Each structure stands twice: as structure tokens, then as C-alpha cells.
């Protein structure tokens, strides 16, 4: 009996099972969306001093290395990062306070559009929903570059969060394009002090980027690669 075909079939079987397990592990957060509607988070800007200081943050015109100073910063995973959610991740931090830190991974499009998961989303129906991380409530959040008359919350560097109704009106009035608005499901979270510790240990590099790069939804655009090249050039110089 020739053992070669039998060995080939065994290898094919093992490879198929391994592929199936990997696929399930990697796509579980996305498949979870099929069983529910996504509820949109509406945020109004606040009038406290912390919000005022965030809104005055300069708007970058290109990618620049930065010290970590809270919302608006982009974290860059190191090239050797092994966590599958964080490999080559660029993470926008949008909350940083005494309760901890929260951000979204910028370059992980899901398999769903907003229209598939939120039928009343209107002009934003074709927008891709991005997977912002592996944690968080069952809500979607929206980032953009428009103040929306105070109905969106500034997170610094020219970026704003929320204000869905006003965003719809802006697009319907042809004053903005639907792709100026980027939607995320779930996020990445750190307990108080943990993110600062990870940055100090060298797990993350920090930069800031123009709003249009943050909200870019071109699948061929990769902020992590672009920012890494900039940071590498800065170090070499």
C-alpha cells in the first residue's frame, strides 16, 4: 500500500481544521453583529474645562511624532506585536481620564455596512462599519471633522465624536460627503494608569495625524505603515 496519498489526506485534514479554528477566532467579534442591531451613540459637547482644553489642540497637517497627552493621540503597535487584534494597529485614543483610556483601531473594516445593521441610518447606509476592538458595549460611534454646531464632542486634533442627526443634515444638504464620517463598533480599553505604563515600556509609539487620515476609508490606505515610515525617518535623522 502506497502511504503517500494517505499522508497527503491527513495533512489536508489537519490544515482544514486549523484554518476553521483560526477563522472562527479571528471573526467572532464581527459575526456577533449579525444577531443584533447597532445602536448609535449620540454625544453633545460638554462645557467643562477638560473639553475646552481638548478643543484647543492644534490640528496636525501631517503625521508627527508626539508625546502622549490624551485624546487625539494615535498609538502605533510595534512591528513585533503578536496579539492578532493589535498587529500593525493604529489606535485613536478618544477617552483618557481617571477611569482609564479608550480607543479604536482605525484600519479593521468589518464585513458589514451601516445600512445592513441600522436600516434607518439613511445617507450613511453604504458606509463600512469598522471593528474598533474586542471590548465595549453594543453601540457604534462616529468620528468626523465637523463641530456640528456643538452637537458633537471634540476629542482634539480637529476630530469630533457623535452628532448623528446633524451629520445627516450636513450630508443631505451637500455640505459633506458620507465618507467624511467613520463608524466603529467596539473598542480597546485600558484600566487607569495601564496605557501610560505600556507606553513607558515601549509597547506603543505615539503620533498625531490629520483628521482626513483618521477618517480615511480607502481599503488600500494603511495609516500604521505610513506613520511607521515617518517615525523611522525621524529616528534616522
CATH class: Alpha Beta
User: Helix coverage percent of residues?
Assistant: 25-40%
CATH homology superfamily: VC0467-like
Average pLDDT confidence is 82
Features:
26% strand, alpha+beta, single chain, VC0467-like, 12 strands, 237 residues, globular
Structural overview:
The protein is α+β, with helices and mostly antiparallel strands. It has one domain (36-236): VC0467-like, CATH 3.40.1740. 31% of the residues lie in helices and 26% in strands. It has helices at 3-31, 49-55, 114-117, 164-172, 194-200, 211-214, 223-236, and strands at 39-40, 64-65, 74-77, 90-97, 100-105, 109-113, 128-131, 135-144, 153-156, 159-161, 182-190, 204-208. Strands 1, 2, 3, 4, 5, 6, 7, 8, 9, 10, 11 and 12 form a twelve-stranded mixed β-sheet that branches. The radius of gyration is 20 Å and the shape is globular. The termini are far apart.
Amino acid at each position: 500500500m502506497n502511504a503517500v496519498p494517505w499522508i497527503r489526506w491527513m495533512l489536508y485534514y489537519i490544515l482544514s481544521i486549523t484554518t476553521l479554528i483560526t477563522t472562527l477566532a479571528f471573526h467572532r467579534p464581527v459575526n456577533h453583529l449579525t444577531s443584533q442591531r447597532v445602536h448609535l451613540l449620540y454625544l453633545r459637547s460638554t462645557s467643562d474645562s477638560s473639553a475646552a482644553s481638548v478643543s484647543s489642540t492644534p490640528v496636525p497637517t501631517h503625521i508627527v511624532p508626539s508625546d502622549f497627552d490624551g485624546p487625539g493621540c494615535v498609538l502605533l503597535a510595534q512591528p513585533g506585536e503578536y496579539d492578532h487584534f493589535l498587529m500593525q494597529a493604529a489606535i485613536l485614543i478618544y477617552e483618557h481620564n481617571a477611569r482609564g483610556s479608550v480607543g479604536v483601531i482605525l484600519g479593521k473594516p468589518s464585513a458589514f455596512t451601516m445600512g445592513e445593521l441600522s436600516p434607518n441610518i439613511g445617507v450613511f447606509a453604504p458606509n463600512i462599519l469598522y471593528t474598533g476592538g474586542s471590548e465595549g458595549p453594543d453601540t457604534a460611534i462616529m468620528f468626523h471633522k465637523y463641530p456640528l454646531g456643538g452637537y458633537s464632542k471634540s476629542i482634539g486634533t480637529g476630530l469630533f465624536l457623535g452628532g448623528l442627526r446633524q451629520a445627516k443634515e450636513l450630508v443631505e444638504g451637500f455640505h459633506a460627503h458620507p465618507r467624511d464620517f467613520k463608524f466603529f463598533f467596539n473598542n480597546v480599553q485600558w484600566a487607569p494608569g495601564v496605557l501610560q505604563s505600556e507606553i513607558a515600556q515601549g509597547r506603543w509609539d505615539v503620533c498625531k495625524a490629520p483628521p482626513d487620515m483618521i477618517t480615511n476609508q480607502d481599503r488600500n490606505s494603511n495609516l500604521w505603515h505610513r506613520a511607521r515610515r515617518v517615525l523611522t525617518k525621524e529616528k534616522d535623522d
